[in-house]
Amino acid sequence: MPLKVVVVGAGLGGLGAAIALNQCGHDVLVLEQSRFLHEVGAAIHVAPNATRILESWGVDFEALQAVRCKQVQIWDEMANPKWGPVITKDLRESLGIYDDWFLTHRVDLHNALRAAAAKEVDGKSVNVRLSSRVASVDSEAGVVKLENGTTITGDLIIGADGMHSKSVSAVTGEVGKKESTGQNCFRFLIPVSKLRSNALTATLLEKIGLDGVNAFIAPDRRILVYPCRGGSLLNIAAIFPSDPSVPVTDSSWFESASIDDLLKTYQRFCPELRELCRLAEDVKLWSLACRCPPRTFVKGKLALVGDAAHPTLPHQGQGGAQALEDGVALGALFPQETTPEQVSKRLSIYNKTRYDHAITVMIVSKVPSDLREQVLEELHTYVPTAEIPEDMYAFNWSSYPAQKALDLLAAAEMDP
Ligand SMILES: Cc1cc2nc3c(=O)[nH]c(=O)nc-3n(C[C@H](O)[C@H](O)[C@H](O)COP(=O)(O)OP(=O)(O)OC[C@H]3O[C@@H](n4cnc5c(N)ncnc54)[C@H](O)[C@@H]3O)c2cc1C
Ligand SMILES: *[C@@H]1O[C@H](CO)[C@@H](O)[C@H](O)[C@H]1NC(C)=O
Ligand SMILES: *[C@@H]1O[C@H](CO)[C@@H](O)[C@H](O)[C@H]1NC(C)=O
Ligand SMILES: CC(=O)N[C@H]1CO[C@H](CO)[C@@H](O)[C@@H]1O
Ligand SMILES: CC(=O)N[C@H]1CO[C@H](CO)[C@@H](O)[C@@H]1O
Question: Is the pTM of this model over 0.85?
Answer without folding.
Answer: yes
